[in-house]
Request: fold
Amino acid sequence: MPSNYFIFSTGGDWDSTTLYNNGDEYMADRLYIDLKAGRDDFGNFVRGGLVDGNADATAMVVPQGTSQEVGIFPGKIDLEFPMHKVTVHNDTPQFAIEFTRVILDGADVTEQVVDFVTDIDAVNNNVQAYIMLYKPHFLAADEVATINLI
Reply:
């Protein structure tokens, strides 16, 4: 089964928003990625991100004019926002979450990511995208930073 390579790009409005898969324009009503990681059994944020395998993810597109959900992985998606670029990559056939890599603006944040959400829903005119990173500190309290992507 060949991998997907999606490229999502937006300048911040619908007219500048495009989605491609393997070099061809992909007309979609929705792009949805929800990645949750870096939590203990009580839901508290902890270091480790995706590498410990304690994570959950949904990543799909809905082709235009259908209600059919198409999985993004195995594969790769580049998401180009006005101020940031995020790459999520996983080529494992069964989407083994611990092998997922997340790159934010050229830096590997796989071990820091606790949330990554992108919901581009053209039908309902709903757009949100953010990434939350766990920031451990040696002498001060650890923190979770939220970066709004759009």
Remarks:
- The chain has no helices and 13 strands.
